[in-house]
Amino acid sequence: MATDTELTLLLETLYASKNPTRRWLHRTRRDWIVAQLRERAQAGARRALEVGFGAGVYLDTLAELFAEAAATDVAEGNLRHAAAIAARHPNLTLLRDDILASALPERAFDVILCSEVIEHFPDSAGALAAMRRLIAPQGRLILSTPQRYSLLEIACRIALAPGVIKLVRRIYGEAVFETGHVNLLSARAVTEQIASAGFRVRERFSSGMYLPVVAEFGGERGLRLERWLEKRTRGGRMDWMLWTQYYVAEPA
Q1: 3-state DSSP: the chain helix, strand, coil percent, rounded to 5?
Q2: Alpha carbons 34 and 28: distance in angstroms, whole number
């Protein structure tokens, strides 16, 4: 488990990285998810839940957009780190809750956000089924998870190996941690699990073109190439190369 200091450092690193590609990869995901949350709030959703809030990237947004916001995690370090955020928002409740054995009430939430979480669950299908029990009949699930065969995940298997990770940290000159991914899924597998859980996909998206070496040493020029390739890859036969897959789903 990362310490509170490591969580803060990682959060600052991902979204304010000196490396243009690293910064863009994470900001793109954050911006897409925040836009989806805003859309749900504008549609009248009042009760929101985040499953596995981690470093708390979306907690302020949830509390600002929704009348009632709850956020769960199983890691005490994450709960301690997020306590200062919750102190700013009387309508935000932090809970230690395991989604696979959740004590939360059924059909209680208009929006459930689960971003970069199910890849940490060996039983991702069970986690999705549990979220289906918690969501209101007209609710929406906003989900993101890495693509199993994306170029970034393939590169990570090498870059984060023992002995190599120290070199990667020197190259980036900032915090780099192991991902902890134990259940990377293809788009087909995620879609099947969403359907089996009792959801219907309303919208899907993908982002995150990563080119090894170009990302590390290409700077802004390398990023422009990656952005150009991403636009031409998204939605096509090579979409699996992009790092993150996103879904908005509703109860079927």
Answers
A1: 50, 20, 30
A2: 10
Amino acid at 134: L
N-to-C CA span, the chain: 36
Separation CA 152–CA 159 (nearest Å): 10
Structure tokens at 74: 């199983």
- Report the alpha-carbon distance of residue 249 to residue 236 in Å, rounded: 21
Per-residue pLDDT, 233: 97
| Separation of alpha carbons 216 and 92, rounded Å | 38
Domains and CATH numbers, the chain: 4-149+182-208+243-251 (3.40.50.150)
Q: Give the separation between CA 92 and CA 112, rounded to whole angstroms.
A: 14
What pLDDT, on a 0 to 100 scale, did the predictor assign at position 44? 97
Low-confidence ranges of the chain (pLDDT < 70): 1-12, 160-161, 163-165
**pLDDT score, position 133:** 98
User: In terms of DSSP H, where are the helices of 106-198?
Assistant: 124-134, 151-159, 165-172, 187-196
pLDDT tens string 41-87: 999 999 999 999 988 999 999 999 999 999 999 988 889 889 999 99
